[in-house]
Amino acid sequence: MRKIALVLLLVHCCGLLSAQKQKKRRASRERSPQQELVYDNINYLPVIRTVQLYPAEQENALPVIELHSNDQLELAFDDLRGDIRNYYLSMEHCDANWKPSRLSPLEYASGFNEERVMTYESSVNTLQPYTHYRASFPTENMRPKLAGNYLLKVYEDADKSRLVISRRFYVVAPLMIVAPELIPSFDVAKRRSNQKLNLRINTGGLTVSNPYQDVKVLVMQNQRPDVQEWLTSPQFVNGNELTYQDNRTLDFGGGNEFRYIDLRSLRLASERMADIAIDSTARVNLVPDINYRTAAYASVFDENGGFFIRNQDKASASAESDYIEVTFTLEDREQVPGTIYVVGGFNNYRREPANQLTLRPGTGSWQATLLLKQGVYDYEYVLATPAGGVDPAFFSGNHFETGNTYQILVYNRRPGTTWDELVGYTEVDTESATRR
How many Å apart are CA 51 and CA 167, to the nearest integer? Predict the structure, then answer.
């Protein structure tokens, strides 16, 4: 009996010591700081990297799901702190302009409107340690009840002020049918550079009292927030058909095919890598890019700005891919009338100090070094002018032959309500439209 009692006492003491150690580890771990919410695609901490949000089995597609369907969105991201943290998800309904819709969670979400991120894995044999997190939603505890724009929030320890990520996604109730048409620009001088869209929208069985006030349309090129246009009123209304064919609207510069880099292997340099160096970190210098604004169009396959996490050297791209310090170089000896940024889907086309190029004195070369996970990336250089404008084609030119996708979203505000429903969505591929 004494031996049994002694064993029980030892087990109890070991348990107390283990609990105290765990408590000390939790106390010593610095929690994510409090943040002010921004209704945009934001990584609030520099240690949060490689955020992806897309429909299941449609990697890099716009995160759109259908209301009351079994559609799922996949969220993935890395935390470079490398420890295990308690992350939670919740969502908020917004109007078409990404302002809070002033609805309570009970009105737009079923369940508790909160879900814990349960799937994670630590990186394996990487120079940069990280923890990879994944989540799928909607779930039984978090499911949208209304169509419209939603902001997904990711935060630590169920404390919504400790934000780490916010991402926009869309829930559509397909009540209207959108029929886009790609035509030559009405401006003869732009026919070699621009892509013009006309739209016909059938309101179906949805009663629209005042289409000039209640319906508005957003058209984005390649999911880009810096290349988009709003239509606030149709040109013609004929019964349940709305026509948008103003000569001055939806006349987009075609841009050029995206530049790309292949970072899938650190053993064998791809064609865009000038050199690879590996010691305490992995570093890659890319072959310098040039300004080909005045060059003729050349057909090159691209992913319309997207990126894919892939690894040719290891089995698991999500947990065995390393992070690389990638140096981009743009050679342009002409005077640049603004600030240059390297952008793509990997950074949501945001223009921030981290992806701003700086001039190397006396060389005519502009450089920026970004930390990227192994994979394949589309990117391009954009010019931000001192007046606040953005020229996406300053370093690449505009060509009507360029393959682009256009995302078309139709919003309707019912009389007496304070929010906008997403009632129509479609995507048009200019290459397919041209072949037709």
Answer: 9
| The three-state (H, E, C) secondary structure of 295-345, written as one string | CCCCCCCCCCCCEECCCCCCCCHHHHCCEEEEEEEEECCCCCCCEEEEECH
Q: What angle do CA 292, 226, 47 make, to 5 degrees?
A: 95
Q: Model confidence over 4-38: pLDDT tens digits? A: 444 444 444 444 444 444 444 444 579 999 999 99
Q: Which of these, 231, 229, 357, 349, lies nearest to 291 by C-alpha position?
A: 357
CA dist., res. 432 & res. 403, Å (int): 9
Are residues 136 and 72 in contact, defined by beta-carbon separation less than 8 angstroms?
yes
Q: Domains in the chain, ordered, with CATH?
A: 42-172 (2.60.40.10), 177-254+401-435 (2.60.40.10), 259-391 (2.60.40)
0.85 exceeded by the pTM?
Answer: yes
Nearest C-alpha neighbor of 54 from the set 263, 223, 217 = 223
Identify each DSSP E strand in 71-137 by its residue range: 73-79, 87-94, 109-111, 115-116, 119-122, 131-137
Q: Which ranges in 194-233 belong to alpha helices (H)?
A: 211-214
**Contacts of residue 116, Cβ cutoff 8 Å, sequence gap at least 6:** 86, 87, 88, 89
323-331 vs 289-290, strand pairing mode: parallel
pLDDT digits (tens, 9 = 90+) for 335-367: 899 999 999 999 999 999 999 999 998 888 999
Place of tokens 């995206």: 258
